[in-house]
Specification:
253 residues, six-stranded mixed β-sheet
Length: 253
Amino acid sequence: MAIRIAAVGDVHMDEDVIGRFRPALEELPDCADVLLLAGDLTRYGTEAEARCVAQEFGGIGVPVVTVLGNHDHQCDQVPQVVKVLEDAGITVLEGTGVVLECAGGRLGVAGVKGFGGGFAGRCASDFGEPEMKAFVRTTTDSADRLAEALHSLDCDVLVALTHYAPVPDTLAGEPLEIYPFLGAYQLGQAIDSAPTALALHGHAHAGSERGTTPGGVRVRNVAHPVIKQAYSVFHLGDQLDHGEVSRVSASGI
């Protein structure tokens, strides 16, 4: 029996978006065991916008697990945002993981927002000015925490959840000049360091859906502007490459 994972990112909730996803979310218990949100839940990271996220994605009949995105940090209200989400029953990961008991087995989800830096041959290096070193070390620290979380989980199926991209494949369609601000190869290395079955991310609105880490792990960009649906559903289990088996549209989007 497979574990069914619904996922979407970059929903950018505010009052004017409330209700658009809810009709599709009401169908989730029939088609998925869990919903993963790949960051950028809000537009500017305010507590009020977080309440919109909680209203839209809380109490939908399946566990909801998320990481935050760069937009969710904009107004420096991260503690308030996290509290609102957790009060609504949404699990927020940042260098941490959770194991969920599903009908198809134990699903482990390790999550981190991630950061930029670029990819092999076109990446920032930990050299020179303190500002550049701090930038790169933010990326490596984030990747290290993702690796630790992945290795800490005792589960049957392991999934990595980030906001920033772990590979350049899923950025195809974005300007090459901004690749270093959309993801980093260190995240891919962290994913490859564990027996990860699937990696999900958002952030790249003009990117592509499908990619693969150097170690062969499937990567999917589930940013809403990319999948153009309320969520995609992935089946993971005995046959690990069922891929996206279904999509459900969001009302009015």
